[in-house]
Amino acid sequence: MSESNKAANLKFGETSLDLPMLSPTAGPDVIDIRKLYAEGRVFTFDPGFTSTASCKSKITFIDGIKGELLYRGYPIEQLAAKSHYLEVCYLLLYGELPSAQELEDFETRVTNHTMVHEQMTYFFRGFRRDAHPMAIMVGVVGAMSAFYPDSTDINDPMQREIASIRMVAKMPTIAAMAYKYSIGQPFVYPSNDLDYAANFLQMCFSVPAEDYEVNPILSRAMDRIFTLHADHEQNASTSTVRLAGSSGANPFACIASGVACLWGPAHGGANQAALEMLKEIGSVERIPEYIARAKDKSDPFRLMGFGHRVYKNFDPRATVMKQSADEVLDLLGIEDNETLKVAKELERIALEDEYFQQKKLFPNVDFYSGIILEAMGFPTSMFTPIFAVSRTVGWIAQWKEMIADPEQKIGRPRQLYIGAAKRDYIDVENR
Ligand code: CMC
Prior knowledge:
The protein is mainly alpha-helical. Helices cover 51% and strands 7% of the residues. The strands form two sheets. Strands 1-2-3 form a three-stranded antiparallel β-sheet. Strand 1 (2-12) and strand 2 (15-23) form a beta hairpin. Residues 235, 266-268, 270, 294, 302-309, 359, 361, 364-366 line the site of carboxymethyl coenzyme *A (CMC).
């Protein structure tokens, strides 16, 4: 990043301001408006932050026009094909691919933290059995600061590091416990001889009464889902984590705020909504009816798993996910999967439709992930918790970057006030 020789000149009324332009490593130039209010006494108005960079970051880059996603410079397709989730976690957290020894040490550190405080099991038992696993996750992740107060001092780099490892290690355990609780089965302890994805599957699907062997095809597919969701620069939940963290809140509280934000159907909740939509459509014959509804402005229905704020081209994660769905169903011997057929046909029809072409709406990561997760045996309610497990490392990497940033300030947006002007209180008898 450098301050370029260019400056933007802004004129309004009698005021003329030269605003510095910043040149990123990749992506469009950025006008630095930090002095705008101090020198010009005006704010900018940008609901949804469509044109506002909220921070500097070295972690993830998206080129939405090309449909490109890079973690620390490495294309997601290469990482999905050649790397694995814990290596990607290392990359996101520390900036470089690890040496063999660094990777081994990191994996050992994560593995040693997979168990949760035993007292947490009682905490789970306070929830209703029919609670959505995301409702449980929001509560339990927030409660981690009560169980691990020795890693909540954000000014101590060692505590920040321990909190990071704890969260990457314990999120799968917490998500699996939320699942087990919701189906009335006993919690399954982590098994440290398994890799990260295989361990998650065994915590979700094994029962004390039977032996359970993790299917390597499924654990590879699970690992790829984790990798594809690991980070996505300044999306809504990550920005929520950064905003919460900007006040100095402890890391567990910040990640809980990210989990809460992720739950919404416009964000991480879309994977559940997308599969439910595909099932509701049910057969290829009904697709035109749903396409028509998605285009009808008087109908709130949207094609879930379609469209993205940044991608105006194929979401590269969706391309990998689609291949993965084919592979997983094929390897599991699931032929004639009606949901996959509906998904592919819906994608084909939508991509040929003028409405979707004009608005540059393409399938996103959530369009195909649910098909894989369902084939693995997960109910739809677990899709968003799995997204939360995957994204935890991205949230933490971004939170750590923010804490270490000397330019970091508490996040505090301005507003365009459109309420009543100052007026005098009227006694109730006179209203
Ligand atoms: N179906 C039908 N129309 C759509 C869709 C859709 N899925 N997405 C956007 N549009 C239309 C929208 O109605 C608007 O039309 P107009 O300009 O006529 O008002 C136009 O496209 C632009 O949409 P927008 O809502 O202004 O765009 P946004 O950047 O604010 O929203 C989005 C992005 C992802 C929230 C939106 O595309 C959406 O709701 N998609 C469905 C939910 C979904 O799949 N979310 C997962 C996102 S990827 C994973 C993640 O990040 O969590």
